[in-house]
Design brief:
The complex is a heterodimer of chains A (362) and B (507).
Chain A lengths: L1 H24 L4 H13 L2 H27 L6 H18 L4 H30 L3 H21 L23 E2 L2 E2 L1 H18 L1 H11 L1 H6 L4 H26 L12 H11 L4 H24 L5 H37 L8 H10 L1
Antiparallel strand pairs in A: 1-2
Helix pairs in contact in A: 1-13, 2-3, 2-12, 3-7, 3-10, 3-11, 3-12, 4-5, 4-6, 4-10, 4-11, 5-6, 5-10, 7-8, 8-10, 11-12, 11-13, 12-13, 13-14
Chain B lengths: L2 E12 L3 E12 L3 E5 L6 H8 L7 E6 L2 E3 L4 H6 L2 E4 L11 H6 L13 H14 L15 H14 L4 E5 L9 H14 L3 E6 L2 H7 L2 E6 L2 E7 L5 H9 L17 E11 L5 E11 L2 E6 L6 H9 L6 E6 L2 E2 L5 H5 L2 E4 L3 H5 L6 H5 L3 H4 L4 E2 L4 E2 L1 H14 L16 H13 L5 E5 L7 H16 L3 E5 L3 H7 L2 E6 L2 E7 L5 H10 L4
Parallel strand pairs in B: 3-8, 3-9, 6-7, 7-8, 13-20, 13-21, 16-19, 19-20
Antiparallel strand pairs in B: 1-2, 1-4, 4-5, 9-10, 11-12, 11-14, 14-15, 17-18, 21-22
The chains are: A mainly alpha (362), B alpha/beta (507).
Chain lengths: 362, 507
């Protein structure tokens, strides 16, 4: 645990140093840039609550990807599931009107159903045609993209608008705000704890995790692999769908063309840097949101273009993923040296390379 | 005889704190069969991997014919004439035998095009020369494990290796195949090749080798002439205490039929019969052993019992209830299963020890969950893991460590601990002691016999005839997918069973 934290922090630090070098080369002041970046995303309640709100879709899609990857199914359909969840939410918000305490749960549920329907299609294609979800979820992303585009251009089109977009959903379906603090964060935190609990404390979560690591072992142990596969696909679809619903309910309150943008792809990236860990997904989602939210301020205050943040994100992913392996190796090396010293076995002859190659072999 | 290879003061530490080899020095002479014996985790394989360039020593030197050498990778060792056949077979299953053999040293024509005709011919020639009885065109995934091992040896011979390291070669062979392998090895020795033979089968070692090096817990105990050694003295050197080899089986008191498999047929692919009219009955308090040369249908019998394969005809009943079409989970309520495939079927290497221990229990035993089976009961899991660890004497730091951090023997004990504590009426044990050291085998056998005496019905598959004779009350012989004999252990002999395994019924 402590080691993990160290590896991740070191990775981030190295990535930021690399980012600083890039800035220096381009003639910007890194200290100024970074302070603008973090100032704009963390300095006061207003900016921090913006950061938190923006983190919600990142974390939810990240959780979706983490749960899927840790349990086996390669669900890469978060972008599509997010869009379908959002459109379900909008449809509910346009045609149903209930008091807020019913409307909000109703829309949240509806968006989860939307996402689950979309991932469920991939699960059924696997069940009946043995099509790999790795392919089908990716393809369904495109279908979702154009399906929602069509929906907001024709049936759900707002007549007076210049661009394809839907009318506003009912006010009763807006996520409440306390000042600038959006309550979508609370929904996200609840979901985070539920997911953590499912994965670490429930029988199903245990089975998912083991199946993700060795499905034959799980199967022979009596685990119902197919049932679990379906459950994981539906759950992860629902998570991405929920992300879409919350984007609508806490943001533009309508479906605008290009909604969701890169949230889901970033979520998949977050799952990868987090190594599918649930708490790590939360933290990285937050961190990526800090970067993304701060990039706007960075652009306003300094001359550094906000695209630099995209570079920084990519560098973090690469460095953290790469250093995870490398630090493990270094730690093993130190442990070996200590052990050899303890036992006083030819310490002067220790061959450093030996330990490197050892790990490469394993 | 001249010394070929000298390994001098080899030290190897595995992070974080396992000293695998502690100042080991060995000399191998030209034209000898040199056995390296020791319990699991004694460092035999590590020592050889260091020689072979797969692992690097933390200190120590290696001399080849007097000059110091250093291999960074197996390829360098092979070009110096040193080759190794591993315990796990490392072939490409989709490739044919000859393609696997030439892989890496392909005879090529213009523009690097592989000369298929020539390579195939050369491999065929070698197969004939060494009387390996292999089809060079067979795909590796379709041939038996024993045949795959031959392919591994063939690969090295093809590369003109004169120093051959074999890591537990007989663990995948049947008793009848072993003499054949030994003849091969002797012939190679007489040709001046040096053979290092890693094993913990003492009889084999005594029969085959010229000299024996004994390792214990990473240290070399001694190198002795085989003629001066006995089974007992070797065992004592290996484990540091006396190991009893006598049969420990008491007479059985059998009860009702628990497991009843009848009229079972299975063909694959269609119309190629793999199993024909199999009848197996196991009673309470009885151990029934299945003997057979590998690839005669054992794998399929196991898979059908576990529900991984569907039989064409036939019936499986347990305690009078039909289980022919039951789900795996339903089966697991009645069947404990120890697989011969420890890494893939028997355990999840990346999961913790306790996660491995509660598999199946988590569904069958209410003790491990709360809230109507939805939530795991962590404290009960911890208590149970500790129980298993104690009663099966598993050496580990913590039940929360990954199971792959354990030695093979301790992994197997963990698996046995899990399965035997399921306490089901029927136990299916497929090679339960494969790859275990003498001490652990003794321990496992005692547990199995205890289960029998507690009125469990046990079906045991083993390639080790001695094990079958030691444990079973009855022995069934499987030959080409048919049960050709059903013998009381007291009324038969290893020789008779061995003959039936090879020749089938007609005697």
């Amino acid at each position: 645990m402590k080691r993990n934290l160290f590896v991740n922090l070191a990775g981030i630090l190295i990535a930021m140093l690399l980012g600083a070098i890039v800035m220096l080369i381009q003639g910007y002041n890194p200290v100024e840039t970074y302070s603008a970046l973090f100032g704009y995303s963390l300095a006061n309640f207003y900016s921090f609550s913006t950061t938190l709100r923006n983190a919600v879709p990142l974390i939810l899609t990240g959780l979706s990807a983490s749960v899927a990857f840790a349990s086996g199914p390669v669900n890469l359909g978060q972008p599509g599931q997010l869009l379908i969840g959002a459109i379900f939410c909008v449809i509910g918000g346009l045609y149903v009107d209930l008091p807020p305490y019913l409307m909000i749960p109703f829309l949240l549920l509806l968006s989860m159903i939307g996402g689950a329907v979309w991932s469920g299609i991939a699960a059924l294609l696997k069940k009946f045609f043995r099509m790999d979800e790795f392919i089908t979820t990716l393809m369904l992303n495109m279908i979702a993209d154009y399906l929602t585009y069509w929906a907001i251009t024709y049936p759900l089109f707002e007549p007076r608008a210049n661009h394809p977009q839907t009318p506003l959903i009912t006010k009763n379906g807006f996520m409440p705000k306390w000042g600038n603090f959006n309550t979508n964060v609370i929904v996200m935190l609840i979901v985070f704890f539920v997911i953590w609990f499912i994965l670490n404390r429930t029988t199903a979560g245990y089975e998912w995790r083991i199946s993700g690591k060795n499905s034959l072992f799980a199967r022979i142990g009596g685990v119902k692999i197919e049932k679990n596969y379906l459950a994981v696909m539906l759950l992860t679809g629902a998570l991405a769908g929920l992300a879409g619903g919350l984007v609508i309910m806490s943001g533009p309150h309508r479906f605008i063309k290009g909604l969701g943008a890169n949230y889901a792809w970033d979520g998949i990236m977050i799952a990868m840097v987090a190594n599918n860990g649930i708490p790590a997904t939360l933290l990285y989602g937050l961190f990526f949101s800090i970067l993304q939210t701060g990039s706007l301020g960075m652009e306003l205050i300094t001359a550094v273009p906000s695209e630099l943040i995209t570079v920084l994100q990519a560098v973090i992913v690469l460095v953290v993923v790469a250093s995870r392996g490398y630090f493990e190796l270094m730690i093993a090396k130190i442990a070996t040296r200590r052990k050899l010293k303890d036992r006083d076995i030819y310490p002067q002859l220790i061959n450093e390379n030996a330990i490197d190659r050892e790990d490469a072999n394993q | 005889m001249t010394d070929v290879i000298t390994m001098d003061h080899i030290v190897k530490v595995f992070p974080p704190n396992v000293v695998a080899l502690n100042n080991v020095s060995v000399t191998f002479r030209e034209g000898e069969i040199h056995a390296v014996v020791g319990e699991n985790g004694a460092g035999k394989t590590t020592l050889m991997k260091i020689l072979y360039g797969m692992q690097e020593a933390n200190s120590g030197k290696i001399f080849l014919k007097g000059s110091q050498v250093h291999f960074n990778k197996p390829g360098e060792a092979i070009s110096s004439g040193i080759g190794m056949v591993h315990q796990e077979i490392l072939l490409i299953p989709e490739y044919s035998v000859w393609e696997n053999v030439i892989l890496g040293v392909e005879p090529t024509g213009y523009f690097g095009k592989i000369d298929q005709q020539k390579s195939r011919q050369k491999v065929k020639q070698q197969i004939d020369e060494f009387q390996f009885h292999l089809d060079p065109d067979a795909r590796v995934e379709e041939i038996s494990v024993a045949a795959r091992q031959k392919v591994e040896i063939l690969k090295l011979l093809y590369r003109n290796v004169s120093f051959l390291i074999l890591d537990e070669p007989t663990s995948v062979l049947t008793p009848q195949e072993i003499p054949q392998l030994f003849d091969e090895l002797r012939r190679m020795r007489d040709n001046g090749r040096t053979i290092v033979y890693i094993s913990h089968h003492l009889e084999e070692v005594l029969e085959l080798s010229d000299r024996i090096t004994v390792l214990r817990k990473g240290s070399k105990i001694d190198t002795i002439e085989s003629s001066a050694a006995t089974k007992k003295s070797l065992a004592q050197m290996m484990v540091g205490r006396e190991v009893i080899f006598e049969s420990i089986r008491k007479t059985a008191r059998t009860g009702n039929i628990v497991f009843d498999m009848s009229g079972l047929d299975y063909s694959f692919p269609q119309k190629r019969p793999i199993l024909q009219n199999i009848q197996i009955q196991v009673r309470e308090g009885e151990i029934v052993g299945i003997a057979g040369v590998e690839g005669n249908g054992q794998l399929e019998v196991v898979r059908i019992i576990m529900g991984l394969l569907k039989p064409d005809h036939g019936k499986i009943e347990i305690q009078g209830k039909d289980f022919t079409h039951a789900s795996i989970l339903e089966r697991r309520e009645k069947i404990s299963f120890v697989s011969q495939d420890r890494a893939n079927m028997g355990s999840c290497l990346n999961a913790t020890i306790s996660e491995n221990i509660i598999m199946t229990h988590h569904r069958l035993n209410k003790r491990f969950s709360k809230w109507n089976g939805i939530v795991l009961n962590k404290s009960q899991i911890r208590i149970f893991s500790e129980e298993v660890r104690k009663s099966f004497d598993i050496q580990m730091d913590s039940t929360e460590a990954e199971i792959k951090s354990l030695s093979g023997g301790n992994q197997q004990k963990t698996i046995l601990g899990r399965e035997l504590s399921l306490d089901t009426p029927f136990l299916l044990l497929d090679q339960p002691t494969r790859g275990l050291d003498v001490g652990s085998i003794e321990y496992v056998h005692e547990h199995i016999l205890q289960m029998r005496d507690d009125a469990h019905a046990i079906l045991l598959l083993s390639a080790d005839l001695e094990e079958l004779f030691r444990l079973s009350d009855r022995i069934l012989v499987l030959h080409r997918g048919k049960i050709v004999a059903n013998l009381k252990t007291e009324q038969t002999s290893i020789e008779e069973v061995g003959y039936l395994m090879l020749e089938g019924g007609a005697q």
